[in-house]
Amino acid sequence: MWRRLLQTANLKLPPILRPRTYLDALVKTGLVFALMAISWCASAQVCTGSLGDPVVNVDFGKGGNPGARLPGAVTNYNYVPTDCPQDGNYAILNATYNCHGSTWHDIPEDHTPGDANGYMMVVNASYTPGDFYLDTVKGLCPNTTYEFASWIVNLSRPSSCGGSPIKPNLTFNIETTTGTVLSTYNTAAIDYTPFPQWRQFGVFFTTPASVGSVVLRLTNNAPGGCGNDLALDDITFRPCGPTIQAAFTSNTAKSIGICEGQQAPQYDLTSSVSSGYSNPVYQWQRSVDSSLFTDIAGAVSLVYQADPVKPGRYRYRLAVAQAGNSSVACRIVSNELTVQIYPTPVVNASANNPVCEDSPLKLAASGGSQYAWSGPNGFSALAQLPTFSASLNSSGTYYLEVTSVDGCKNTDSVKVNVFPKASVAAGADQTICEGLAIALNGSLAAAYRWSPAKGLSATGIRNPIARPADTTTYVLTITDNNGCQRSDSLTINVLKKPLAEAGPEKQIFEGQSATLDGSAKGTGIRYSWSPATSMTNANTLQPVVAPADNTTYTLSVISDVGCGAAQDQVFVCVFKKVAIPNAFSPNGDGINDDWNILYLQTYTQAVVTVFNRYGQQVFTSNGYNKKWNGTVNGNPLPAGTYYYMIDRKNGLAMLNGWLLIVR
């Protein structure tokens, strides 16, 4: 920076001295104070008073990338429709990315605030210094001071060009159309920055009498080569004049917020104008909800009484110009004063009305950011959706105050009726035996609902028939004439009827024992076996039995609570020891005429087969219900020895041997 100050002062810096060393020397000689003053004067090339609206605002438009070329008279650089122009070329772009091996900064958007897809002029300076932008600016006022300004960014990264890119250096000249220079300004070398940085440069000038157009000339002073790349945007010409200060007469703030319908003496506006106009004329202007400023008819003094009443954002400012030269292009304007009238919130208070006693009472509010409820029985709440259990004392009007995010308030109310809770009785608990039914008897109501439905003849009547298979609790929910519901319950205890199960059949050999596998179910039961002979305990479910013969045992189960009785039987088969005679005399004398095998009848599936000595089968029988009389096909067999085989089945061993027929 100090090197630039020295250059501005036309002082040369000896190459053998470092800047810090030379600065020390300047301090000792007192030159540094002069340099600081020179630097301030060089940079103070913008209006120090009040500005008017831009008479000219060149923002290069907006649209798809790239934009159209400029008129040929504006620049002698060559237009290229690319993102990264070469030396001596320019482009109209929305953004730059990855230009020249990423030696340029990436510029994601132009400078114009809020300008989506806005354009900027991207310049890669020519090798030869000279003019690169020339335009005639029309519509200015004669004998009026203007500020010219433009926003510029150095596109080169500090690391480009071996760390020493050429820095842009521009001169702005404001000239008459006949070539007379009205003002000139040099930016000096625009330094590169680690990140892209838009900077504003400008100068102010005064138009001569009868002159309403000027020429803007931008000159590139730096040599061509690596660097000297820039982007240009938002070229403006604005009237410049004395300082105008607008204020509220009773408030030092620049913005006042007030709720709709409130009285506000702060609406008195006043302004002060520093010296600069010999015969100033005043005009108050207003903008509603961010629209453009328009003149207020008749508001032509330093004081104005504003009277907005509808919700909205009202901006006020004072425009000032020299008498006889007061067009829009000549006027300067004060700072803005804002009156924000906030709307009264639209409030809605509601409730789930009517509500039944002991049921949730739900209040609801909308329209603000803060809520305050008050109501019967000392109720108060700050919630938007308060909920509580209603009592009979909860009936009445609930009042709501709502505050908007802007602090404006409004009220509403809602009336709530609380009905007494319904009276319900499902009836007394009942006890029945399994399989029986009973009629329920609920209290009188407008509507009924029994649950569960299992075992009921109906669920929506007062007196359904219940036939539950197991003990069941039934809930009766009734609705009264006010729509209030309430529930009660009763339990039907089901006594299980007796169930007897004697168990599977048993088979034993004579002299053995078996355990019976009886079981019994039911409520309040007792059981016994019969006959009780050859049994260890007739009053147990698994007694041990040892009958001498086949026996059928009966298990009897009796309900002591009056739900009946049940029986079941089991057969115990006793296999006798078979006695096989080895001789008989089928001679018809009535004595020992048949082969009488004792106890074989207990083996009902037994197969008896007899063979002669030649192995021929002479008799067979499934079971031995009819004794063999020594014949085959009705013919008597001769006396002699025969052989038998007896298969008793049931996995028992085969019996075989010989027998003798005696004649």
Write the layout of secondary structure elements.
Elements: H1 2-8, H2 19-29, H3 31-43, E1 50-51, E2 56-58, E3 78-79, E4 89-93, E5 120-124, E6 130-137, E7 145-154, E8 169-176, E9 181-189, E10 199-206, E11 214-220, E12 229-241, E13 244-248, E14 255-259, E15 268-273, E16 280-288, E17 294-295, E18 303-305, E19 312-322, E20 332-333, E21 337-342, E22 348-351, E23 355-356, E24 360-366, E25 370-375, E26 379-381, E27 387-389, E28 396-403, E29 409-416, E30 418-419, E31 430-433, E32 438-439, E33 447-451, E34 465-466, E35 472-479, E36 485-495, E37 499-501, E38 506-509, E39 514-515, E40 519-521, E41 525-530, E42 544-545, E43 551-559, E44 565-575, E45 583-584, E46 607-611, E47 617-622, E48 631-632, E49 635-636, E50 640-647, E51 655-661
Parallel strand pairs: 3-4, 14-21, 23-30, 31-36, 38-44, 45-51
Antiparallel strand pairs: 1-12, 2-12, 4-5, 5-12, 6-11, 7-10, 7-12, 8-9, 8-11, 13-15, 15-18, 16-17, 16-19, 19-20, 19-21, 22-24, 24-27, 25-26, 25-28, 28-29, 32-34, 33-35, 35-36, 37-40, 39-42, 41-43, 43-44, 46-47, 46-50, 48-49, 50-51
Short description:
This protein has 663 residues and is mostly beta strands. Helix content is 5%, strand content 42%. Strands 1, 2, 3, 4, 5, 7, 10 and 12 form an eight-stranded mixed beta sheet that branches. Strands 14, 16, 17, 19, 20 and 21 form a six-stranded mixed beta sheet that branches. A five-stranded mixed beta sheet has the order 45-51-50-46-47, with no helix packed on it.
